[in-house]
Amino acid sequence: MELILLPLIFGIISFFIPRSWVKTTNVLFAFASLVAISIKCVFFNPDFMEIIYDPIAHSRIGMTFEFGYDGIGLIMLMLSNLVVFLVALSNFNRTEGSSPLFNGLLFLMQFGLNGLFISQDAILFYVFWEFTLIPIFFILYWFGAKDNQRNLLKFFLYTLLGSLGMLLSILYMASFSNSFGYEDLLYSAIPAKAACWIMTGFLIAFAVKIPLFPFHTWQPPTYATAPMAGTMMLSAIMLKMALFGMMKWMIPLSFDGLENWKLIIVILGIVGIVYGAFIAMREKDIKKVFAFASISHLGLIAAGIMIFTMQSLQGAMVQMVNHSLIAIGLFLCADILEKRFGTRDLTAMGGVAKIAPMFGFWYAVITFIALSVPMTAGFIGEFFLIKSIFDYQWILGVLASLTLVLGAVYMIRTYQMSSIGALKINTFQDLQWNEITVFVIIAILAVAIGLYPSLVLDFVKPSIQNMLNAVKDSNTLIR
Asked: DSSP letter string over 70-91?
């Protein structure tokens, strides 16, 4: 239970820490959580489900209050704790890093995320899903741009209303099993028509959160006006809640509805790839460039998850890790440029690599990682995903592969406009130690997974195989 109790305790303590201590204790707390989950990874056997808390009796309403994780859940836990640590480190020399309120909210978000990834009960999953909306709302409200109220309201309403679809699906499928426990739901017989409606409700919530085209309209303006840490948390881990939910909850628990939605969601994912890339190529606001790039990347992952094969799910897991790393790196670069230039407009930037070589170098490294060059995690993830889409329908695979070309165009364009060319600023403070540390960690992890993809692939393979076996061995069981 320390996986969810530690962030909760750290969050409560952070609200009362003196401002002069906050940024240091924030990093130490985040590091402690990361160490705790790393120890779990070392001793974890991916062939088994690790049960953290499993009470004997169900509650009167059918809740089990069970927590546990398999290889997929543990990777997401590791990713959640890593993202919080990198956000805390990135924020060390910024105003928010010295705010007890901000850091308390950050750890409350981590509490919600960790709880969601280890929930083995549908109601618990929904409660933690909704809980994460509270701290991120106040982070965006109190620490975002002054003119972000309209964008924040759109984000809040989109997410909240979308979640109602998931709640209705949870209540509907529980009516067939008289329980909200994951195992009980997994082995409950559900008519195919009911499974289709259940998947529809889940899709409403997940399509908004990812976001899939055309449910993406809240994302770019929200990213643009959010504080750096808020944008990082949204892009690097909160959107993964929906992808995790699709993989772990939606498809296994309503499998008979998959064929009704598979082609539609795969097509929407590919439309998102192309649409996001083309908008990113024309956009001048650097944070919006990376927001639309995120839509493009996440569309590919969502398409792969819907195909639901061993290869596509392994590729999705690798690409989720990779996307989190590049999201942290790119939005840190964007924030550095915005702070130094005083604007997010790419046309007002340029030439910084000449006077800030350290920044120019690491920005280039992050750009190449985002391009999924060989020997990086993205290369493995995109190869698996595109190959699985080719196997599903070759013409869709051709369209999905456009992400390789279009991604190179908008990433190189953005780097060129912001860092190369005529110098448009007299002074530009180069990277500080904490920013360099973040970039180094990202680069090491991206290359390590690129060279040794088994670090992720072998870890999640038994869990994926268990899901595939479960849906294969039943006719109309809810999965």
From this structure: -HHHHHHHHHHHHHHHHHHHHT
Give the residue from 245, 250, 248, 223 showing the smallest Cα distance to 234: 223
Tell me which residue range forms the domain holding 213: 2-472
Tokens of residue 386, six digits: 């595109």
| DSSP conformation class of 285 | B
Is the Cβ–Cβ distance between 343 and 352 less than 8 Å? no
Distances (CA, A) of 200 to 68, 91, 230, 259, 265: 26, 39, 29, 12, 11
**Is 82 inside any structural domain?**
yes
In angstroms, the CA 397 to CA 112 distance is 36
Model pLDDT for residues 138-171, shown as the tens digit of each residue: 888 888 777 777 888 888 888 888 899 999 999 9
- CA-to-CA distance for 29 and 35, rounded, in angstroms? 10
Nearest to 229 by CA among 106, 404, 411, 369: 106
pLDDT digits (tens, 9 = 90+) for 111-121: 999 999 998 88
Q: Cα 316 to the chain's mean position, in Å?
A: 11
Looking at the domain assignment, is residue 478 inside a domain? no
- Cross-strand partners of 50: 69
Which residue, 407, 383, 260, 375, is CA-closest to 315? 383
Q: How many residues does the chain have?
A: 479
**CA max distance for the chain:** 69
CA distance linking residue 232 with residue 234, whole number of Å = 5
Question: What total number of domains does the chain contain?
Answer: 1
Dihedral pair phi/psi, residue 300, rounded to 5°: -65, -45
Confidence grade of residue 23 (pLDDT, cut at 50, 70, 90): confident
Outline where DSSP puts E strands in 41-146. Answer: 50-53, 67-69
Two structure tokens written together for 314: 């392994």
- pTM, rounded to two decimals: 0.91
Type of residue at 67: F
* Alpha helix stretches (DSSP H) within 342-453: 352-355, 357-370, 377-392, 394-400, 402-419, 433-451
Residue 451 above 80 pLDDT? yes
* Orientation of helix 433-451 relative to helix 377-392, angle to 10°: 50
**Low-confidence winner among 119-133, 143-157, 326-340 (lowest mean pLDDT):** 143-157
